[in-house]
Design a protein that fits this description.
The complex is a heterodimer of chains A (about 325) and B (about 260). Chain A is α/β, with parallel strands linked by helices. Chain A has eight helices and 15 strands. In chain A, strands 7-6-5-8-4-1-2-3-9 form a nine-stranded mixed beta sheet, with helices on both faces. In chain A, helix 3 packs across helix 4 and helix 5 packs parallel to helix 8. Helices cover about 30% and strands about 30% of the residues of chain B. In chain B, helix 2 links the parallel strand 4 and strand 5. Classes of the chains: A alpha/beta (about 325), B alpha/beta (about 260).
């Protein structure tokens, strides 16, 4: 049984390969990785060291930017060539979409957002996050073929061990039905790098104007942390390119302070791995308080500046 | 323009009913609704119809209770609606099989609109599976759609950036939360919608008898939210300094300051 593994960035390959290896341990067989893109030879070399396996490299200008149809064709062709029955992807939105196209074409099962594999008797149990991150479902499969995507944060990244080998492969991509006409990458400011931050301050709809984010940023600064926003502030108002939450960036800081955030499931599921959660909200019934270790019911516009002042005194 | 919209009878995740002892999610007891993204797909279809003319056909795969969201779809402006009873156990494989059989039987359609990632199960599989199965172009997670008689252009946020995607029709477009704010039907529309017939189909009618799911859910357990829930009331602002001192002391004790 061969598992074909694909991730979308240098950062997530070690985690997604770790997910692939976790499954390989239970079912045996080979693991083969793919690197798809343009000018990604170096990445392929690195992935070979990480996986210690064969890495199929497909490097073409038309693959520089993610195109679900093109990427699906490449993966299907490689899976066929190496006889992979399982395709394992990274479960960001791009991977989830790809998992759908691949499983539709291959008429096989699909499971997105896997966080753990378990062997029970002769069955493999796939645990995945569901209900906007509020629950974990256990799933079993009936057929032999399967497409899954794994949640990168759920697997401990593998280290480079060497021993892999890059195999260059050309795949003809004619007659693509969908054309990517434009791609604007998100430019995320350094202060907003949320995944690895030890302290994060989050702002929600209780923050009424974009200028008022200044006090959120100031609180983050005095704590030596990063700041972020909820989905509506990013996606609807455009105050930030990314948002904290299971549909955006899940975070796992030591300290998370939620300011003016009501606590929608999408958000609270993305902050679950924080060590300590503090909530500041004027509504005592806001769901966020159920997810908080410490909460203050009151006006964020008075509480945050006072908190900044006291912390500054403390830090001298 | 013939538009097909799939709507999901989904769970209200914010009102998820959880058995406190076993942590099992009690789906049957959880309130349900027209899933938010599929509602936006319907809204977008109606806006396209208002601009270009044509008809909007709605299909829902679900139990008899789902009739209520079909009536809602009629009230919003759908022309024609089908309720399809799924087999007892079903997964994304069965759902996309049903939709593709429906597309072939009742179609062709110029455009298929679906939610990009359902707010309850969160898998993003159905629209993308359907495109794989039917071999139709997929334009996923649209936050903006422009359709003409021959082609469709969408703008999508796929996490790492914004993509502008173009394809010829027929095509499948899945939508994201930002695309629109769905209309709220008025009373006369609701009353009229209640009189509209709901077409019903069984999987046998679509030639899918005997199809079984590829993935089975065997258990679903909600996360336990283990937090301390120490809450201070600062609705009287004079208490703020004292409360902040308490908070800072606690954060020091926790070792996070």
């Amino acid at each position: 049984m061969t598992i074909l593994v694909h991730a979308f960035s240098e950062k997530t390959y070690p985690q997604v390969i770790a997910g692939g290896k976790a499954l390989q341990e239970l079912i045996g067989g080979d693991l083969i990785a793919t690197v798809i893109g343009h000018g990604v030879e170096e990445l392929a070399e690195k992935v070979a060291k990480l996986s210690g396996s064969k890495v199929y490299l497909v490097d073409k200008p038309e693959l520089e930017i993610y195109n679900p149809e093109a990427y699906a064709r490449v993966l299907i062709e490689i899976a066929k060539e190496v006889g992979a029955k399982i395709i394992l992807l990274e479960s960001d939105i791009k991977g989830k979409i790809l998992a759908g196209i691949l499983s539709g074409k291959l008429e096989c099962g699909a499971i997105n957002d896997v966080i753990e594999f378990e062997k029970r008797g002769d069955k493999i149990i796939y645990k995945r996050v569901t209900y906007a991150g509020r629950a974990v479902a256990e799933e079993e499969t009936t057929g032999e073929s399967l497409v899954i995507s794994v949640n990168p944060g759920a697997f401990k990244p593998v280290e480079e061990s060497g021993g892999g080998e890059v195999v260059k492969k050309d795949i003809i991509l004619e007659d693509l039905k969908v054309v990517v006409e434009e791609y604007k990458p998100k430019e995320v400011a350094g202060e907003m790098r949320l995944e690895d931050a030890e302290v994060v301050v989050g702002a929600g709809r209780g923050i009424r104007k974009q200028e008022d984010l200044e006090m959120i940023k100031e609180l983050a600064k005095v704590l030596g942390g990063s700041w972020g926003v909820t989905r509506p502030l990013a996606a609807d108002y455009g105050w930030a390119p990314i948002w904290i939450g299971i549909s955006g960036v899940p975070i796992r800081p030591k300290l998370y302070i939620a300011v003016g955030i009501s606590g929608q499931p999408q958000h609270t599921s993305g902050i679950r791995d924080s060590k300590i959660i503090v909530a500041i909200n004027k509504d005592p019934d806001a769901p966020i308080f159920q997810f908080a270790d410490y909460g203050i019911v009151g006006d964020a516009y008075q509480i945050v500046p006072e908190l900044v002042k006291k912390l500054k005194e403390l830090k001298g | 323009m013939k538009i097909l919209v799939g709507i999901k009878y989904g769970l209200k995740v914010e009102n998820l009913v959880i058995d406190p002892r076993s942590r099992k999610v009690l789906e049957a007891d959880t309130p349900k609704q027209m899933e938010e993204l599929s509602k936006r797909a319907l809204e977008e279809a109606l806006r396209i119809k208002e601009k270009l003319g044509g008809a909007v056909t709605v299909v829902c795969i679900g139990p008899q209770e789902a009739r209520k969201i079909i009536t809602e779809a009629y009230a919003m402006g759908a022309d024609d609606a089908y309720l399809i009873t799924p087999p007892e156990a079903y997964d994304s494989y069965i759902v996309s099989k049903i939709l593709s059989a429906f597309y072939k039987t009742k179609g062709p359609f110029d455009l298929v609109l679906l939610g990009g990632i359902s707010t309850d199960s969160f898998t993003a599989l159905v629209g993308s599976r359907l495109s794989g199965e039917l071999g139709l172009p997929l334009l996923p997670m649209a936050k903006k759609i422009e359709v003409s008689e021959q082609e469709v252009v969408v703008e999508s946020d796929l996490g790492d950036g914004t993509y502008k995607l173009r394809s010829k029709l027929p095509a499948i477009v899945t939508v994201s939360l930002e695309i629109n704010e769905p209309r709220i039907p008025k009373l006369p529309q609701i009353l009229k919608a209640k009189k509209k017939p709901i077409n019903e189909l069984k999987i046998d009618d679509l030639g899918l008898a005997g199809e079984t799911p590829k993935v089975l859910i065997t258990d679903t357990k909600a996360y336990e939210e283990k937090r301390k829930n120490v809450i201070w009331d600062a609705s009287d602002p004079s208490k703020i300094p004292e409360i902040i001192e308490n908070l800072i002391n606690k954060l020091k004790e926790e070792g996070v300051l």
